[in-house]
Amino acid sequence: MTSFGRFAHTLNVVTLLVWAGLLVMTGITAATTFVTLKSLEPSMAGFAGVPQREHWSLVGGMAASRFFAAADVAGFICGGVASVTLIVLATSGSLRQRSRGYIIARVGSLGLLMMLFSYQLLVLGPRMSSNLTKYWTAAAKSEDLAAMARAKAAFDADHGHGSTVLFTLTCLVLFAGIIAAWPGSAQDAAGQFKNNS
User: How many structural domains does the chain have?
Assistant: First the structure.
């Protein structure tokens, strides 16, 4: 593999593992935020239509929405870099000496990952964000309780699915990163060991 190929390979691996770390931290941060706010029992002015005991959920949702928006931006960047570097490796012949199974696993895992992320970025995420915004807007208007209930129900209907998508996306990113970092064959492993000795 040429120096440029090694650089592209390293960038590909690092990008995927950084993305995986960001997704894990996003999930942990969001969960911790909700648990902490629930114990603090905050009260928000301007949301008289929402029972005070549920204000922690409003505050948590507003904070968590920023975490997930940032994770989507990071995912767009990391996914783009990972895809471009893998294309570069494939077209430059840097993967030619790798095993067939390794190439299939590497390309397949990244392909599945990008399809799921595209669904999250273009379909599920915008829909959940739109329903959440509608809920906040209606909650600020205490007389519009019906609209608030509809928006909350629509968001809640997607919430469990969204958690599953986030978990699956994290697993796929981590798997793709591990596959990318793994030697493609016993000869590759021996070569890397020799080079590191």
Answer: 1
Asked whether residue 37 is domain-assigned, the answer is: yes
Q: Does 196 map to a domain? A: no
Copy the structure tokens of residue 101: 């199974």
Residue 135: inside a domain:
yes
Q: Cα–Cα distance between 24 and 75 in angstroms, integer?
A: 12
* 3-state SS, one letter per residue, for the chain: CCHHHHHHHHHHHHHHHHHHHHHHHHHHHHHHHHHHHHHHCCCCCCCCCCCHHHHHHHHHHHHHHHHHHHHHHHHHHHHHHHHHHHHHHHHCCCCCCCCHHHHHHHHHHHHHHHHHHHHHHHHHHHHHHHHHHHHHHHHCCCCCHHHHHHHHHHHHHHHHHHHHHHHHHHHHHHHHHHHHHCCCCHHHHHHHHHHHC
Domain assignment present for 188: no
Q: Is the pTM of this model over 0.70?
A: yes
Mean pLDDT split into 10-residue runs, the chain, 197 residues = 84 95 94 91 80 85 92 96 94 82 90 96 95 85 76 91 95 94 55 45
